[in-house]
Amino acid sequence: MRILLTxxxxxxxxxxxxxxxxxxxxxxxxxVGTDCGETSYGFYDATYDRVYRVPQADDASxxxxxxxxxxxxxxxxxxxSPEIEVLFWSGREFxxxxxxxxxxxxRAAISKKSLYxxxxxxxxxxxxxxxxxxxxxxxxxxxxxxxxxxxRDFSDASSSGLGAIHVSDAEQAYAWAFLxxxxxxxxxxxxxPGRNLACTMLFYRDTLLKVGCYERLExxxxxxxxxxxxxxxxxxxxxxxxxxERVGEQAVRLISHQHDQPAHGLFTVDVREAADGTPRxxxxxxxxxxxxxxxxxxxxxxxxxxxxxxxxxxxxxxxxTTAFPEGNLILRDIDGEPLLIASDRTLEVGAFTEPLx
Length: 357
What we know:
The chain has 357 residues and is an alpha+beta fold. The chain is built from eleven helices and 15 strands.
């Protein structure tokens, strides 16, 4: 089987590729990557058989570039990973089979403002408000009745705790806004001190096909950020949590059905627990996260299931849930062996690389 994986140089797509290579159902696979070239490591990483540099999704030549690669490489199926590319291809015909959510669902999910507004009348999201940087600099519009709040950027597809900080007074919020002039608007939400969880779910035409959950315990270089969140965990654990699965499924179905669309595609729902243990949805990603290879190691291979569903092989996916061993631990180091490139050159759009031996 020949699989195309977009955004190949990122940490998460490399985790997807590792999951695909670990699949017994898919057998031997050839994995061809595409990337716009912001991160060079993946071009030479042996995770892939080859990686093409392509234009960004908003470039006029992007579609033609993907079509040409799919023809040249005789691609059978694709996994679209970066949210900007999921948004682009959702509602469009990809050159080969792939599984993507409906465009209305994608737009609702990747905008935290739209997501929170869609779930406002439920108990699924934390209490929140939207404020401007100007408000914070003027030390106003910050409701601290609960003692402290969580500030963060809420621009579309923002991740890795961008602009995030836990503040307990207006002076701290002022200082944070002053230090982050590029962030014009903030979400102010109740601070959730409990577990930090992720639930990855695969839907096909409103049927939940597979689910896997994990807990984030520690982040790479977390001590170097004010929020302690850097986007990639160094320690975590796979969890068996039916309540978490229920909340994640409910959130995805709600934002889908509000637009008269079935729950369809792969989603990762981020959840934090309140002090009393109540789970609250903090964001929904229309993609895998880097923890997907750990889920695969535990028996919940979400990437394998996504490829099988894309090809219509639903009866091969297996059980919806996987029982993970109690007391397990996920350990991660900075991903990948160091690579020595003999000649430092800029890879032109349309060119490809093969892994270093």
